[in-house]
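Z., the sequence and structure:
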Amino acid sequence: MIFCDCVKYSVQNRIALLQLHTIIVCAILIQHIRPVRRLKFSNTSIGGAVFTAEIIPIEFCIEFQPDPGNADGGKIMFKSSIKFIPFILLILAVFSGCSKKAADESRLKEVVVYTYDSFVSEWGAGPEIEKLFEEKTGLELTFVDCGDAVQVLSRAVLEKNDVQADVILGLDNNIAQKAEEAGILVSYKPADADKIISDEIRLQLGKNWTLTPYDYSHFAMIYDTLSDVPCPKSLEDLLNPVYEKKIILMDPRTSTPGLGFVTWTAAIYGDKTADYWKALKPNILTMAPGWSSGYGLFKKGEAPLVISYTTSPASHIEYDNTDRYIAPVFEQGHPIQVEGAGILKGAQNRKGAEMFIDFLISEEAQSVMPLTQWMNPVNKAVVLPACYEQAAPIPSKTLAVDPAVLDKTVDEIMKILEN
């Protein structure tokens, strides 16, 4: 029989349990090879668990068998029964239950958020949001970098039947419908959300509050004024041979800015979008996998034009003290990106997830967005920094297309670029 006195148990995985199983199997072998009345482990530590255990066989005896032909009168035989194994299995089941309970309790003190690379970078909003949220709530906030926002969605869908995160952050208006169709989100409306967020921004992500907006900006081509090519004034200008290998775009299958540019061309050219991309192809230097890598190439001077946001030049004024980069406003209009966060169906810490969404649109958290995300905050009470007034133009015309048609458009465009 095993008596286990649990002093402390805080193991969050099954490694400790496996180690304990190993010890007990060894104990069983000891009992059959070299039987002992007691096998004791005192204050033993395994994977963070500290316990005292005794293994006592249920049936243990010394049996004397007479032997008339032996001058010594017989022999002593040890007898140890395997009947005690069910008790071992029983205690293992109890220990496993303790393990799960402790892990569940620990998980309720943590909020896990899937998001994209730039959000959790050292200069992104993630580190400051994490600090403020933990100070305010006492919960641990864990951000998981999934790549770009499209990859965030893909991972959440793959884990639909084994949900690991509580919140996904970074899905925008162009992929919100995919999340809705995948059935991975639950509806949650933060307190006073109607007063904090304008209807114009909120409705970009739908009406049922499966995604709550936290920032937004219009897409734009960012131009390097020190380059030797003219500043474009329209999408049509980008077809000019003077821009051959001068444009950096992002893959629309993995990047939301990449998908945003596809949206832009589809909104302007409609059924002629494929023809536009055929003409644009010679001028594309690369299709980066995500915004961070693409914009990084632009800052290194690899090309004078990159797809980004109207708010991007403000970052260069604030941190680089330069107005070298600008976001020209096209008369045709610009598509908008509204980013949102949602609670996953089956989240292990639903209450913590709701607390995070509430905090995300609070004035405290929203004040972090302009100088880290370089996007406009959705909270109307937040005052924008001076650099936004200098270099973050707001287009007078916002463009949009039905997200349902984008998949087909993206497929057509990638075939053009790959051939």
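Residues 85-107 form the longest helix (23 residues). Residues 176 and 206 are 8 Å apart (CA to CA).

Let me know what you think.
H.
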